[in-house]
Amino acid sequence: MVDMSEPWWYPLARDVVAKSSNSSNFLAFRFMEPVHLRVAAEEFQPYTEVTHDPTTGATLLKGPTINILQALASSLNFTYSLIHGDGFLGAPLPNGSWDGVMGMLQRQEVDLALGPLALTPQRAEVVDFTQPFFLEKMRLLQARPTSTPDPWGLLTPFSVVVWVCIAVSFVAVVVAVAATVLCLGRGEPSHPADHLLAVASVLIGQALPWIPKGLAVRVALGTWMLSVIIIANSYSGSLTSLLTVRELSAKYDSLRQVVDDPDVTILLEGSTAFSAYLETAQKGIFLEVRRATEQRGRFLLAKDLWRSLHLLQDGRHVMLIDEETGKKFTSDYFSMTGECDHYVSRDVFFNMILAMAVPKGSPLLQLLDHRIRMVREYGLCRTWILRQIYNVSHCLEPLAKDTSLIPYTLTHLWGAFLLLGCGLSLASLIFCWDVLCFRARSAAAEEKYQLKIQWT
User: Would the pTM of this model clear 0.70, i.e. be above it?
Assistant: First the structure.
């Protein structure tokens, strides 16, 4: 007995599936009369892209899944109408039903869902998946890091420990030389200030203000000079390298970095296989991601991901996105602006197998499977994907170093001018102190001279 709620072609498809024993039989089959299928389609770039005709306003779809659909339609002799839902691919609801494309399949409102949809055990209980045609990975999309000026770049050639050792060595040499002269009581200046000036002169590459005569003092100062030569050359070489080649590093290259930064806003598509997985996470990094998204996450429609791309530029937003989608956005942005302002992270935190789907028990499944396998094995899926992201290669250079010849501005080197300003300010204060002391000594000498005249 025929189920009147089923499409008329269901019994015919079941009969073909029952009688066919190998793939060649399936590939040879065509519907004698054109069959009309209801096909659910939502935007999922670069696989399925929704555009609008500027003249008629009609909705148009393009992308690899549309190419596959057209190949299937030609092979099986069916026509189709595209049906849009609520903008989501689908996730389970608390009442057991599904939203998005998955809900349309569950309610048998459509005969085929383009998706592509990620295969999960939970989804497989509700729908039947076709042969997979792509492996997708999830990564982080963020503003591409640039070389930012470091106001304290003059200190970066050495670590804090090295700077401390230099300071300690400086004091030690001053004390050693001064103590040697005081103990011997001959040969060199005896005032500690003279020794401090001598050791400081060597440190900044100047000659000694006086000639050491004692062997012990000569050995101490000679060792200090040799050490300063090594330290100064190491510093100048490292500083030159840092000024010429600037290190670049992504702010967020892993989920852990995103979770640990309470100030970053997380952008991700809602009602997907990944968002559904987060809802069930009970431990590990994904549990932390779920809690983070509850506090500072924004779930978006797939069509709104591109529109939200500008939010990444402030460095306080990061998008959890499919790798190929991120490449598509990067490629389109470069095509529009000529700039590579976005970076797809190296860290892969979620893997998905993508396929189309049909309602549970649909006889269309095996008719589609063999044809999709042929399309996949001929490499057409990957070829169609690459056509969508042809410009991405311009922006996939790994983050390592920035060697661009950009003139340095005051913003880059204000640390050096700050040091100069502090030195001049200190010199001015010492100058004022010397003037006051000189005037005081002069006044005292004048007063003493006048008293001497009066007594005589």
Answer: no
